[in-house]
Amino acid sequence: MSAPAAIPDTPTFVTHLECGMTGERLPADTLQNLSPKGWPILVRYDLAGVKAALTKELIAGRAPNWWRYRELLPVRRTENVVSLGEVMTPLIPLPRLARRLGVTAEVIVKDEGRLPTGSFKARGLALAVCMAKELGVEKMAMPTNGNAGAALAAYASRAGIETVVFCPDDTPAVNMNEIALQGARLYKVNGLINDCGKLVGEGKATAGWFDTSTLKEPYRIEGKKTMGLELAEQLGWEMPDAIFYPTGGGTGLIGMWKAFAELEAIGFIGSKRPKMIAVQASGCAPIVRAFEAGERHAKLWENAHTVAAGIRVPAAIGDFLILDAVRESGGFAIAVEDAAIEQALKDVATEEGLLLCPEGAATYAAYKQALGDGRVKKGDRVVLFNCATGLKYPMADGGKPLDRHGSIDYSKL
Ligand SMILES: Cc1ncc(COP(=O)(O)O)c(C=O)c1O
Fold this sequence. Notes:
The protein is of the alpha/beta class. It contains 13 helices and 13 strands. The termini are far apart. The structure holds pyridoxal-5'-phosphate. This is Threonine synthase. It holds the Pfam family PALP.
């Protein structure tokens, strides 16, 4: 049995799929990649039906994982739910650092490192795999910067679906090894994630792969949407003032924005929205450049480099969806230097005892930077996304050697 008994066997409220650019309608329950015009596809629901069927109390009584939002998710049959023990990820305030920065409102980390495979990629890939299972897919392929490939490999193996994964050959070793160990055929490519994406595109017809690349199928957004649903519920259905999100392909930012619109449509929240803040690294900041230039699409970023491998994404096919959400929310896109990311990681770990991943640390660095330039205020309640467990990443050597046979001056230890 792959579905925990607590998951209600309710029909989904999906009505159709829709091109994210043109609004063209496509049928639900069919296998789709990009829309006929070549844009990402969004899933649409009968929200009036959801409103009539779902209450906050009903949700509160369900198991603490993303299937508690089942009416807003696309899986039709419970037998297609693939589960690895999902949890609601905790909100962890940073009170010591907040005091040090002189801020008067809460600074909260949503720690996604607690999910299966140690990252928020579990949300999107779990839903992609459930839907692939529902629609009869046998082989899935994707390019990855690490965490997404690991989540795909894990959930697909659990579902009995074959996977082929391509990653840049300098992806963190732990990611490459977990992908391979969790059952994918992994290829380490001498290029960046967009080069890996080209290989999936070129090979899929010959090899019979379903292309699971970021935003090239409709369901990863639906999984990532649960970050927004969960955050809203955890905050008592009150929106924070700002959300800092480490942005590569941007699925999570787009997904949360969609979640908030759906929650308003079903009457769970009002019209207040957080400022959506897309965080990138200075060595790879195509969204920041497009935001500042007032453009709706981002040009390819040449020679992309950053210590935060997950956000080393030189081109994002959903760039317009990211930029639309950021602008509509009154937010902004911001780039941080690698040195600031490394310092942020150290500060949060040593002061608060919370080990972030580099991409998560980038959000704290960006928050500090935005406080400094006045784009967020000291009274703003902010949420920073830590997308993966810090334990997956190489760390600086810690500790000092101690000779137990020598004389030890304990007063100096
Ligand atoms: C740890 C981490 N943070 C952030 C990202 C970027 O996520 P998104 O593609 O949703 O923008 C990734 C993607 O690989 C990641 O692994």
